[in-house]
Amino acid sequence: MKKQYDTIDALAASIVAYEINVCSVMRDAVYENQEIKYQPNRILIATHLDGTKLLPVTDEHRKQAKELVVYLQQTIMLQTLMKGSSDGFAQNVLDIISEPTMWSKNVGLLAWAPKLSADLQKKDRVRESSAHYERSSRYVGTVGSKITVDFTLIESRFMPRMDCYSVYGHTAEGNLIFYWAKKSEKIVQQGRIEGRVKKQESDDFRGNALVTTLNYVKVV
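The structure assignment produced for this chain is given below.
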């Protein structure tokens, strides 16, 4: 028989499960020395809700759960208005957490709510940081020239299709820089890099900002 649970209680448990699993959503158990190190998030939540194995949920987690609901409602609604359609997965999560109670069958989907929120907040921070430089950014050097700059990271992401990392940031003067990194060691949080200017173009995805793309990047 399917059970129903208070959504905020379940969401608070999902936040704790997310924290326990080092801010990740584990689909399967992770073993270390033949012992379970991390349980799947959905199992942690389900066993908490049925009273089998309680998680250390506090009033602060319940407060975070309520704030998470409001944040996702506002953010996903805004994205839908801007794009004309919603992300199906995000909308499914939102539909579950927007109701006062939820069915036990939806625990697996609910487990993703904290990560969805964290990912969207990260994108918000990236957009805000990038927007700060988009209007004032100027090209650095000339195509084919070798340059050395003081670099501060805005965002890095691993791109499976390219089998490398995209690295995006700005110089000390506020000019936007992009490069590909085959190894994570070339992702500079803040430091000095050198490279050859591959191209310079207005980036449609970043408010038509002037972005300088480098290759052969070295950390110096």
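Interim note for the steering committee: The chain is about 40% helix and 30% strand. Residues 135-219 form a domain with the OB fold (Dihydrolipoamide Acetyltransferase, E2P) fold (CATH 2.40.50.140).
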